[in-house]
Design brief:
Length: 475
């Protein structure tokens, strides 16, 4: 575990090195990220073997996750090379305006040292060298990662690889560091050096850290991805055996330990979907969960849901494992006891909610609160415009067909939604826009050209996109 003295040294170093990291060029930091990606790829076998020992996620899944992680690093390298994230904006002086306007130039700058909390269910992609770390390094912020206790040895190895890769490309010492332990994590959030926090984990743990972040003498942004039910609405015309098979595969994927798992599915009553899903799931078999504590939490949460809903598929949970369970209830029950039924149960279970009309289903969906995703399964004969708008109001990503357990790492991705899915619905933790969490705008008024950042100069030596007097120029 990281001691208080060690943490003080790490945070002090991050504070001292932050101006040097911020002063590096986008090209330099892109090379950092690519060096980390190359180093991880070079040791993929060793990393995957260790991750499998600590997580039981399996070699195929973990190998794919390393590939996703290195792809994220390379994506953020391309983001900073392209330059639009800077939002470089120039308004030349206009003495004839009423009132006269001065020369104003605005762009985004790194916020400073960032704390990142690793997730348990993605030991690579949302962990030590995951998306939060990559996006913060990309824009010039030192990163201090708090390792997740579910995979400590993997965290240390990954941190060693990242540190060595950064050293080889001459990144300032202290640009990246790893800490361990609950006390170190809490102290990291309250450290006056840390300017923002990224977190992926439980609602309970995230809320506790969020409260610490905003209760500081100097409150800081806390970007927490916490919990999500990810509602699915199935119209009567969309019911099919194929759809049931897709749901079965989605809610059991990774033993149900995905933040995007479809946890509640609204289906038309008397449609036979219950039977189709039971057939698709088949005879439930237990699978090892990420940790004994997660298995216990799943069993406890499931017991509470089973006291309120009907169990269609599944049985009691074996200690340390997760067995698929399908539950069922009605919209009337949801409306009567939303606090008991509209709760995330992290593991291989989903709750079918039978509705009499689509409007009735929407009334219940409105009670869910914020979710990372919402999915609509309909046919061409359905009028879906209003349905799509209802789902967009409570989620960050609306799917038309398909299942949410799969988050593409792209420029347009949105992985964040209203509370309680995240603490900051205006941001995403996946995709190119994730860098916006770690930057802030600074305007320069009547500044001499020599002191302006290169991105704000009239000759645009970096060739980045600029908005000049209201007109976007692509460099």
């Amino acid at each position: 575990m990281t001691t208080t003295a060690e943490l003080d040294t790490i945070t002090r170093t991050a504070s001292l090195v932050a101006p040097m990291v911020a002063a590096t060029t986008d090209i330099e930091r892109a090379l950092w990220l690519e060096a980390i990606a190359d180093a991880l790829d070079a040791r993929v076998g060793e990393l995957v073997a260790l991750a499998d020992e600590e997580s039981s996620l399996g070699v195929p899944r973990l190998t794919g996750e390393v590939a996703r992680t290195t792809a994220q690093l390379r994506l953020f390298a391309s983001v900073v090379r392209e330059g639009s994230y800077l939002d470089a904006t120039i308004d030349h002086a206009d003495p004839a305006a009423t009132p006269p306007t001065p020369d104003l130039r605005r762009m985004m700058r790194p916020i400073g040292p960032v704390a990142v909390f690793s997730a348990s269910n993605f030991p690579f992609a949302f962990s030590v060298a995951g998306g939060d770390t990559a996006s913060a390094l990309a824009v010039g912020c030192p990163v201090i990662v708090k390792a997740h206790p579910a995979h400590p040895r993997l965290s240390r190895l990954t941190a060693e690889i990242v540190t060595e890769a950064l050293r080889r490309v001459d990144a300032p010492d202290g640009t990246f560091a790893l800490v361990e332990g609950v006390e170190a994590g809490s102290a990291l959030v309250t450290s006056p050096v840390v300017e923002a926090v990224g977190f992926t984990g439980s609602l309970h743990g995230g809320r506790a850290l969020f409260d610490l972040a905003v209760a500081r003498p100097k409150p800081i942004p806390f970007y927490g991805e916490l919990g999500s039910l990810n509602p699915v609405l199935v119209t009567p015309s969309a019911v099919s055996a194929e759809l049931a098979a897709g749901l079965a595969a989605s809610f059991t994927l990774g033993v149900g330990q995905f933040c995007t798992k479809p946890g509640i599915v609204f289906v038309p009553e008397a449609s036979g979907f219950d039977r189709l899903l039971a057939e698709a799931v088949g005879a439930p078999r237990p699978a090892t969960m990420l940790s004994p504590s997660l298995a216990t939490a799943f069993a406890d949460g499931l017991a509470l849901l089973q006291a309120r809903a009907t169990t269609l598929v599944g049985a009691e949970q074996e200690p340390g494992s997760g067995t698929p369970v399908v539950l069922a209830t009605t919209v009337a029950d949801i409306l009567a006891s939303p606090d008991d039924l509209l709760v995330e149960c992290f593991g291989p279970t989903t709750l079918l909610v039978r509705y009499g009309s689509v409007d009735e289903a929407l009334d219940a969906i409105a009670l869910i609160g914020g979710s990372l995703t919402a999915a609509l399964h309909a046919t061409d004969d359905d009028d879906i415009a209003g349905l799509a708008e209802s789902l967009a109001r409570i989620s960050g990503r609306v799917l038309f067909g398909g299942w949410p357990t799969g988050v593409a790492v792209t420029w347009a991705q949105q992985h964040g939604g209203p509370w309680p899915s995240t603490t900051s619905p205006g941001h995403t933790s996946v995709g190119a826009a994730a860098v916006r969490r770690w930057i802030r705008p600074v305007a320069y008024q009547a500044a001499p050209s020599a002191v302006l950042p290169l991105a704000l100069r009239d000759d645009n030596p970096l060739g980045v996109p600029q908005r000049v007097d209201g007109v976007l120029r692509l460099g």
